[in-house]
Amino acid sequence: xxxxxxxxxxVGADGHIVGNWVLSRVLEQNGxxxxxxxxxxxxxxxxNAAVETNADxxxxxxxxxxxxxxxxGFRQKCDEAGxxxxxxxxxxxxxxxxxxxxxxxxxxxAMGFNRVYAAQTHPKLAIKDLRQDxxxxx
Amino acid sequence: xxxxxxxxxxxxxxxDEEFFTSRKEQLDRWKTGKEIEDxxxxxxxxAAQPDSKSYAxxxxxxxxxDRILVEIGVGVADINKQIGHMKALEEAGADSxxxxxxxxxxxxxxxxAEAGRDASLEQGASALNGFPHVTYGATACRRIAETIDRxxxxxxxxxxxxxxxxxxxxxxxxxxxxxxDLHSLAQHCKDYPLDKQIxxxxxxxxxxxxxxxxxxxxxxxxxxxxxxxxxxxxMSAMVVIHGLLLAEQGAKHVxxxxxxxxxxxxxxxxxxxxxxxxxxxxxxxGYNDMVLSSMTWPWMGDWPxxxxxxxxxxxxxAVTAVLGGANWVYVKSTVExxxxxDENANIAGLRVAKQVIRTMGSQKLADHKELxxxxxMMKREARAIIEKVLELGDGxxxxxxxxxxxxxxxxxxxxxxxxxxxxVVPLRDSTGALRILEPGNLPFDKEIIEWNREKIRQREIxxxxxxxxxxxxxxxxxxxxxxV
Lengths: 138, 484
Fold this sequence. Notes:
The complex is a heterodimer.
Chain A: E1 5-10, H1 18-29, E2 33-36, H2 43-52, E3 57-62, H3 67-71, H4 74-80, E4 87-92, H5 101-110, E5 115-118, H6 123-133
Parallel strand pairs in A: 1-2, 1-3, 3-4, 4-5
Chain B: H1 16-27, H2 39-47, H3 55-64, E1 69-74, H4 79-91, E2 96-100, H5 103-106, H6 110-123, H7 133-136, H8 138-147, E3 152-155, H9 162-171, E4 176-178, H10 182-188, H11 194-213, E5 219-222, H12 232-248, E6 253-259, H13 264-284, E7 291-297, H14 307-324, E8 328-331, H15 343-360, H16 369-392, H17 397-407, E9 425-428, E10 434-438, H18 446-463, H19 469-477
Parallel strand pairs in B: 1-2, 1-8, 2-3, 3-4, 4-5, 5-6, 6-7, 7-8
Antiparallel strand pairs in B: 9-10
Helix pairs in contact in B: 4-8, 4-15, 8-9, 9-11, 12-13, 12-16, 13-14, 13-16, 14-15, 16-17
């Protein structure tokens, strides 16, 4: 066990659950306590779950392309709820347009996300980053 | 519980009064509903369209000529771009179109759809992932059907958005629609109650029947897939149950969809299985004038980013359609993984499919020995579910389906919808066919369960591994990862 709690879910009106299902299972296998909110999760539901469980990170998935609209103001919402500096990750197909990954990543980083992952990133990569960001790596 | 809100659900044809009372409420849900208050005027508009725009008529023609229709989807926020894009595809040889609504419209979040449309028009690029037809309204949307000389199918509803979205779709001159069944809950929804969803589908089915009886035949498409890991027999059972529901409401033209699982033998068996079971059960319940066709959906799992790998997946779905004897095939662009496709990417996907279809000609897999074995097992599994549904509903499939889902008799893995037990776990066997590793509460006998397990065991032996999470992840990513 890592004694770390993370919240996962698919943001907005998005029902694409498969990747998030996999991510959540792999996080569990790696010793994280996972609060899995499933599909179509609002910002408030993410934030409330993180507050209630004293979570260390929120991992947001989005596949359907409209993520930039759904993630607007996410960091502010965390701040307002007292989740100062909570780790915010986002991953998936994050734009309706065909854009370089870096352009998309910069857009989400400007919104306050700490890490941004393109679609088809293996969960292990995100978990390695997460361990590092949480100070779990030696 | 999510499935049951106690609204007196029955599988019985609605009366005119029931329908028109409900219709009034539905049209009030967004301002453009007012435009289509006169249903008979909308039907007359649709009926007056040339045959070239009727899905049911073009399907009958294609079947008579032993031709496979190739359909492609377009959905952007700006109606002018929507039309321009479709026109380019028509000129490139598309036989029919699918217009996809954006997710906000699908979820009846019409204000968000309107804001997204306006933002899109302002910034000159689509901020929505589809076409927001409800915010435009039928009068504006008719310009699409009037410009494009091909049948148009519409997909763009889920849960509470079903009735208004479909009314506006049909009144716009679109002649085919999804049947909005349990597949659509399983695919898009989180917590909408199943009995309400069935009632919404009954409304749509009744509406399609009304158009059809009054000279404007409407084709209803049973979706038949959820994603790339949808066990075929469960999907097949759901198709048959919904086939009975829509027949009861008076719909007549039906296409049975099948989601491609990437094993040509299994996918071909699936197409045959659905055709045979639907025909059998319609006959058994006295629905004798149904018109059935079948279609294939492309791979509904993770797509490769590379355009050539992507084209390979499209070619495979065309192969499946030909060998399985489908009447139409829906194809994707060559940039499916990355973005909403532009005209060129869609035209490329269309050409890939058309090339495969014309090259393969009339080849079929109909009498292949292993296919027949696959089909018989699939029918046996599907029949076990269907019969249990009928038993639970005391002969009423609507009532039975709600109970069956509650009890896990119908269960779909990896669904966003929380009404499923989610105990079924699928896994591929050594040939890539999808098998059931964990049957949950599916009403399968020991022989069926062992048959599935044995197929998976053969893969374990061949690959020297054990059926576990890593194998499931490998199933999920192996088709989309780059070829190095």
